[in-house]
């Protein structure tokens, strides 16, 4: 029995779906019966069709915990040519945050809860309990591998696996498309030509801005999304009445930047909120 097959069977016994990888960390290619989508499977293997192929030729979808399949003659050729073992994180109820370089790892250490960590050739895999949508390039050097994806098995790592945080889930939430425009100058009140402020007292606006600052400051996860939603809420209430000035906007930007947001992201989020509301 090869070392890779031995590892695969051990993982399968723990409920981790496995598959063999060939050179280049790639899954096994389709067999002749499945080539060119002849079997009905999707070409990108994201959503396989009703393929009855007994060989491991459908990427993550071939991953299994069945030892009779893993050790079957149909998989023997694949194991002989395998250079590594991969697993389907989502199938095991896990999510892998793939940190591809030292900068990405430093970001994770500053922003994510500690969990089981596995060293890779260029960075680290941070493994959390819980499955979610997979996505690549969620930020520089960071990929999310969970459902409909595979990750290379590089050992059990160190530390204890903790629950998947909202911070990671929020990384795949798409915000409205970024609108590239120059930052809005608010030396004069926004939409000042629309008449006087409908709010009866300045205290109403002050409370609204203070609550918005507090909402951003207290965000423990999904900071990007929280900033955008807060900007949207402020503008939907105060954006047409002529009372928002640079001083108030600067307070919101300062609260967001204190949570680690860049000035560019603040500007983009503000512009997106303006566009969403037609301002």
Number of helices: 9
Helix share of residues?
Answer: 25-40%
**What series of H and E elements makes up the topology?**
HEEHHEEHEEEEEEHHHHH
Compute the number of strand runs. Answer: 10
- Mean pLDDT across residues: 83
The radius of gyration over CA amounts to: 25 Å
How would you sum up the global shape? elongated
- pLDDT < 50 stretches: 176-196
Distance between the termini: 67 Å
Q: Characterize the largest beta sheet: strand count, sense, and whether it forms a barrel.
A: 6 strands, mixed
Structural class: alpha+beta
Beta strand %: 5-15%
Description:
The chain has 279 residues and is of the alpha+beta class. The chain has helices at 3-13, 67-70, 73-81, 102-111, 166-169, 202-217, 223-238, 246-258, 263-277, and strands at 18-22, 26-27, 84-87, 94-99, 116-119, 124-129, 135-139, 142-145, 151-152, 162-163. Helix 7 (223-238) crosses helix 9 (263-277).
């Amino acid at each position: 029995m090869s070392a890779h097959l031995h590892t695969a069977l051990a993982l399968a016994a723990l409920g981790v779906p496995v598959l063999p990888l060939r050179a280049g960390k790639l899954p096994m290619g389709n067999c002749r019966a499945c080539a060119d989508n002849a079997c009905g499977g999707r070409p990108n293997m994201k959503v396989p069709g009703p393929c009855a192929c007994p060989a491991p030729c459908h990427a993550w979808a071939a991953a299994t915990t069945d030892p009779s399949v893993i050790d079957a003659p149909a998989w023997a050729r694949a194991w002989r040519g395998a250079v590594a073992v991969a697993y389907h994180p989502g199938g095991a109820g896990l999510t892998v945050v793939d940190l591809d370089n030292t900068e990405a790892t430093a970001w994770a250490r500053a922003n994510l809860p500690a969990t089981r960590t596995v060293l890779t050739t260029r960075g680290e895999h941070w493994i959390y309990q819980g499955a979610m949508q997979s996505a690549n390039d969620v930020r520089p050097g960071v990929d999310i591998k969970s459902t409909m994806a595979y990750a290379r098995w590089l050992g059990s790592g160190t530390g204890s696996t903790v629950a998947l945080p909202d911070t990671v889930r929020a990384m795949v939430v798409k915000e409205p498309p970024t609108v590239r425009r120059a930052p809005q100058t608010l030396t004069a009140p926004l939409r000042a030509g629309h008449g006087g402020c409908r709010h009866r007292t300045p205290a109403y606006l002050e409370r609204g801005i203070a609550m918005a600052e507090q909402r951003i400051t207290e965000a423990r996860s999904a900071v990007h999304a929280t900033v955008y939603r807060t900007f949207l809420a402020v503008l939907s209430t105060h954006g047409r009445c002529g009372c928002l000035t640079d001083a108030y906007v600067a307070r919101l930007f300062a609260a967001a930047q204190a949570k680690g947001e860049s000035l560019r992201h603040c500007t983009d989020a503000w512009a997106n909120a303006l566009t969403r509301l037609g301002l």
